[in-house]
Amino acid sequence: MSMEQKRLLYNIQVLNFAVYDLTLYLDTHSYDKEALKYYNHYNALLKQSVEEYSMLYEPLTLRHVNKNDNCFKWALAPWPWEGVC
Predict the structure, then answer these.
(1) What 8-state DSSP symbol labels residue 59?
(2) Rounded CA separation 56/5 (Å)
(3) What share of the chain has pLDDT > 90, as a percent?
(4) What is residue 28's predicted lDDT score, i.e. its pLDDT?
(5) Confidence of residue 62 (pLDDT cuts 50, 70, 90)
(6) Do the Cβ atoms of 60 and 12 come closer than 8 Å?
(7) 63 phi and psi, to 5 degrees?
(8) Where are the domains positioned within the chain?
(9) Helix (H, G, I), strand (E, B) or coil at 84
(10) Cα-based distances in Å from 13 to 9, 23, 31, 49, 69
């Protein structure tokens, strides 16, 4: 795994944590406009990062499988337990 791939995957993990944490906060503070603004911002960054990673490397979820490919590449990437990390 290249350093760029690791960096992008780490960035996705950080953004995913932020979005999840903001979701939990908004569950109990649904009228907090500032928190909703942060949620929308970080959720957009997360979606963009996941799409970028999926185009450059491999899909992270089934929703990100590239429909333009000539084959179904979901299971072609190495699995985490195959020691490529």
Answers:
(1) -
(2) 9
(3) 56
(4) 95
(5) confident
(6) yes
(7) -65, -20
(8) 3-82
(9) coil
(10) 6, 15, 27, 10, 26
> What span, in angstroms and rounded, lies between the C-alpha atoms of 31 and 37?
11
- What does the pLDDT average to over 58-84? 69
DSSP 64: G
- Looking at the predicted structure, is the pLDDT value of residue 84 above 70? no
Give tens-digit pLDDT for 28-52.
Answer: 999 999 999 999 999 999 999 999 9
Residue 54: both structure tokens together: 């999926």
- Residue that the structure tokens 């429909």 belong to: 67
Tokens read off for 76: 């072609």
Q: Which two tokens stand for residue 55?
A: 């185009």
Q: Alpha helices of 1-85 — where are they, by DSSP H?
A: 3-28, 33-56
Return the ∠ at Cα 47 (arms to 44 and 52), rounded to 5°: 125
Residue 34 structure tokens: 């500032």
